[in-house]
Design a protein that fits this description.
transferase, elongated, mainly alpha, acyltransferase, acyltransferase activity
Length: 87
């Protein structure tokens, strides 16, 4: 279908399949994250203390940067590739 003939919004079927694909990928990632791996939080007490000290917005002197390693990122891509390649 040429671009000029494409509908302005995707069809109901397309939106439904898209929502289901995202839901399945998210669900599988969540199952992997909480079922097949060990979730760790290092330094949570110190982080919460830092957040409690920063409640005064005007008193902040510098920004707060957080770093995390998301295991689910490694699962999403292969799962999405398998789902989309079979459609």
């Amino acid at each position: 279908m040429p671009l000029a003939e494409a509908p302005a919004t995707p069809s109901l079927l397309w939106r439904t399949v898209s929502a289901c694909t995202c839901g399945v990928a998210g669900g599988l990632s969540r199952v992997f994250l909480f079922g097949a791996s060990k979730t760790e939080v290092n330094g949570l007490d110190g982080f919460l203390d830092t957040l409690d000290q920063r409640t005064d917005v005007d008193g902040r002197e510098k920004g707060l940067i957080t770093v995390s390693n998301h295991v689910s990122v490694y699962v999403c891509t292969p799962v999405l590739r398998r789902i989309t390649s079979s459609v």
